[in-house]
Amino acid sequence: MTSDNRQRTWFAVFVLTVFCTGLASGIFIGRRMTPPGTAQGPQFPPFFGAFGPGILSPGALMLDRLTEAIQLTPDQRQRLDGVLKASRERVVTEQQGVRTRFEADQRRLRDEIRAILTPEQQVRFEQWLEQGPRGRGFGRGPGRPK
């Protein structure tokens, strides 16, 4: 190894060490700067689950931002809050309907496949479904209904 290559290698190791040290320091300091029990988890839309205490929904965040940005009156804020809640309810209902239709279509597809197979193949097909979706595009997977 030439002297030039050694210098490049040591320089690369030095840069990597500085980067890793900075990253570790940032993580350590970041955790120390947030008082225990005040860190908020990720904020998901309402259709992904319930919000914990102190976590604002996306609709509430939008309402707060709009109130500040365009200076909504209290009446406008209240009316807009109703519009956002109604929209959220429509989205949740639509998602539930889509999920129901999708699951029915998947059951129908599996039934059509079973109708083509011999009894021995049907047993293997069920085993294949139980293994879960490993790049096959469908299957029950963990926690999915039969």
Pattern of helices and strands: HHHH
Counting helices, strands and paired strands, the structural category is mainly alpha
Outline type: flat
Instruction: Provide the gyration radius in Å.
Output: 27 Å
Task: State the end-to-end CA separation.
Answer: 62 Å
H/I helix tally: 4
Number of strands: 0
Proportion of residues in extended strands: under 5%
Low-confidence stretches: 41-54, 139-143
Major beta-sheet overview: none
What's the pLDDT, averaged over the residues? 77
Can you put this structure into words, describing what you see?
The chain has helices at residues 3-33, 58-70, 74-116, 119-130. Helices cover 68% and strands 0% of the residues. It is mainly α and 146 residues long.
Keywords, separated by commas or semicolons:
single chain, mainly alpha, 4 helices
Compact summary:
By secondary structure, the chain is mostly helical.
Secondary-structure blueprint:
Blueprint: H1 3-33, H2 58-70, H3 74-116, H4 119-130
Helix pairs in contact: 2-3
